[in-house]
């Protein structure tokens, strides 16, 4: 039987490690940004911590500009141990792998004008190999369905998350990362229905992030098929766990 695993994260904003309430991140309205935690530690502190404990599958997410140096600091600290996301394209994906990323995480590049481009995903997969690609299908709920959201979860795309879309994507990537943006950073509990559905739909490793409090609950709901990222709930990010 598969078993849910903990996968850590490093979220970067303006070069700092932060825990952000997902739907509040909007570059056009920076005053609306809500954070649960802003670290006084360097990004490399967290990369080294995960390395020491061999916490594999960790993702580093660059939330906007001004984070490249911080991201490279993390990758230098643990070469081959971290996935990198945020602004990944066909033009720079290989460079990030060469810089030490285990895999690259891609979202917005696959949705020009908020419309899914299978051609872009196929080109990226052919260039760097599906084994090096994580597709981020972070989403927001609209009219009883989950829709992929890009541009820091502010722009809704034309892709609904369902069994068919995940099957299509899985032909060209090796993992999924899914932030439930409506509950991200709120510490009020997971999107139970989404986790249950993902457990039925996914056929490749999948990591869920968003208001997680209990690993065993997700293990049960997904039959061990969905891995977890804890953020704001952890004491290293100001939480209590």
From TrEMBL:
Name this protein carries in UniProt: 1-(5-phosphoribosyl)-5-[(5-phosphoribosylamino)methylideneamino] imidazole-4-carboxamide isomerase
- UniProt KW Ubl conjugation keyword: no
- GO biological process per UniProt: L-histidine biosynthetic process; L-tryptophan biosynthetic process
Q: Spell out the InterPro entries in the cross-references.
A: Aldolase_TIM (IPR013785), His6/HISN3 (IPR011858), His_biosynth (IPR006062), Isoase_HisA-like (IPR044524), RibuloseP-bd_barrel (IPR011060)
Q: In which pathway does it act?
A: Amino-acid biosynthesis; L-histidine biosynthesis; L-histidine from 5-phospho-alpha-D-ribose 1-diphosphate: step 4/9
The record, for NCBIfam families, names: hisA_euk
Record GO terms (molecular function)? 1-(5-phosphoribosyl)-5-[(5-phosphoribosylamino)methylideneamino]imidazole-4-carboxamide isomerase activity
Entry keyword Cytoplasm: yes
A Gene Ontology CC term for this entry? cytoplasm
Instruction: Please state which protein family the record places this protein in.
Output: Belongs to the HisA/HisF family.
| Compartments where found | Cytoplasm
For this protein, the Enzyme Commission number is 5.3.1.16
What keywords tag this UniProt record? Amino-acid biosynthesis, Cytoplasm, Histidine biosynthesis, Isomerase
- The main place the protein resides is cytoplasm
Which EC class heads this enzyme's classification?
isomerase
Q: Which reaction does it catalyse?
A: 1-(5-phospho-beta-D-ribosyl)-5-[(5-phospho-beta-D-ribosylamino)methylideneamino]imidazole-4-carboxamide = 5-[(5-phospho-1-deoxy-D-ribulos-1-ylimino)methylamino]-1-(5-phospho-beta-D-ribosyl)imidazole-4-carboxamide
